[in-house]
Design a protein that fits this description.
By secondary structure, the chain is of the alpha/beta class. It contains eleven helices and 15 strands. The protein has a domain of 226 residues: Rossmann fold, CATH 3.40.50.720. β10 and β11 form a beta hairpin. The radius of gyration is 21 Å and the shape is elongated. Bound molecules: flavin-adenine dinucleotide (FAD). The site of flavin-adenine dinucleotide has 43 residues, from α1, β2, α2, α9 and β8.
């Protein structure tokens, strides 16, 4: 039997995770990974890489900004359009996958380590026990005496999670994909349809590129800038619950962040952002005054009201239809959710194979 030809578009953390899942779980498929950029040049390479989650806000915040401020005033989150149990499963599947690597001899090569620390809040959040609190390890609230270390904050959580360094993890996933028989091609795709003559199923993991390849106007950039510093004495992460300021010790460097600038497409480093990041991080961890900065990076998160993980059929110029599985729009949490959504995308590819007798393309 001829293999079913599958193209996965995108070689960031979402595309590589999906390519590995499909190549390993569906051996009837011949999988090709297509991308115009590979590690170290993807957004995923810029990610701070802490494994955490925030409920995706849902459609109303994006299309009705007035609801967003009303929701903030009432301290009630907007109802998300993805059922909470699906988001939770994405996080849990990802966490368990990364945890297994962190506990294996591959940990350092794959860039995946345990990371313990504190998430602190200037005002107690409306939900003190987030949905991932029983998935990460040892979740608890900080005591009064522990909080004295952070005089500007009134509430805190302590837990152990994972730090995933994509500059190591992406090459590690690529090797795993090739070991499973996967092929790699460097190519810029115009529209997904153009692949329909060569492939039976197209899996779209192009992140922000989905604005063009899938014509999705609901995807927008959220600019993020981070610094990396040498400060080997730091062992614990500190994250302000507002998500803007964080200090994440890693294997060689400490990542200092950050910014979240919605619809800002600038890829160059902004010196004022760097100064602000350093000032905010030093307020949280004064010993950073002694740290040596080793670099500054900028990436554009693929923002969307929810990640799009679903099937579609597209017309291919006069020669029928092609199956497409989308997996993009992970915003600020792509590293944390990638494996979970990849498992869903792989199942959707499996459904395409089951529901239609696909004639394999030559
Ligand atoms: C500063 C910063 C800090 C972050 N910190 C964290 C964190 O701590 N934890 C966390 O979970 N997440 C974090 N994120 C978010 C995370 O980086 C993203 O959610 C994730 O990288 C998205 O992955 P992706 O694979 O969808 O996209 P990308 O990494 O952008 O990959 C997209 C791929 O698609 C390809 N592509 C696009 N268009 C085309 C085309 N037309 N033709 C061919 N190929 C194409 C690209 O070349 C690339 O290979 C952070 C992001 C930033 C910027």
């Amino acid at each position: 039997m001829k293999p079913i030809k599958v193209a996965v578009v995108g070689a960031g953390v979402v595309g590589l995770s999906t390519a590995v899942c499909v190549a390993e779980a569906l051996p009837v498929c011949s999988v090709t990974l297509l991308a115009d950029k590979f590690s170290p040049d993807t957004t995923s390479d810029v990610a701070a890489g802490i494994v955490l989650g925030e409920e995706y806000p849902g459609r109303c915040w994006t299309f009705h900004p007035e609801l967003k401020s009303a929701a903030f005033e009432r301290q009630t989150p907007c109802v998300s359009d993805i059922p909470s149990d699906r988001q939770r499963r994405w996080f849990q599947d990802s966490f368990e996958h990364l945890l297994a690597i962190a506990q294996s001899p591959h940990s350092l090569e794959a860039g995946i380590i345990f990371s313990s620390g504190f998430q602190i809040f200037k005002e107690p959040p409306s939900n003190k026990t987030p949905y991932w609190s029983d998935i990460v390890l040892g979740f608890r609230f900080l005591s009064e005496s522990e909080l004295k270390r952070f005089p500007h904050h009134k509430f805190g959580q302590a837990f152990t999670t994972i730090k995933c360094e994509c500059s190591s993890y992406l090459p590690w996933l690529l090797k795993r994909f090739q070991k499973a028989g996967g092929h790699v091609e460097q190519k810029k795709v115009g529209r997904l349809q153009e692949l329909g003559l060569r492939y039976d199923v197209i899996v779209n993991c192009s992140g922000l590129g989905s604005r063009d390849v899938a014509g999705d106007s609901q995807v927008y950039p959220v600019r993020g800038q981070v610094l990396r510093a040498e400060a080997p004495w730091l062992q614990h992460f500190i994250r302000d619950g507002d998500g803007k300021t964080y200090v994440y010790p890693g294997i060689r460097y400490v990542t200092l962040g950050g910014t979240r600038q919605v619809r800002d497409e600038r890829l160059q480093v902004d010196q004022r952002d760097s100064e602000s990041i350093l000032e905010r991080c030093t307020l949280l961890e004064p010993s950073l005054r002694e740290a040596r900065l080793v670099g500054e990076w900028v990436g554009l998160r693929p923002g969307r009201w929810i990640p799009r993980v679903e099937r579609e059929e597209l017309e291919v110029n006069g020669s029928g239809r092609v199956h497409v599985v989308h997996n993009y729009g992970h915003g600020g949490w792509g590293v944390s959710m990638a494996w979970g959504t990849a498992v869903d995308a792989m199942r959707l590819v499996g459904k395409c194979l089951q529901e239609s007798s696909l004639p394999a393309k030559l």
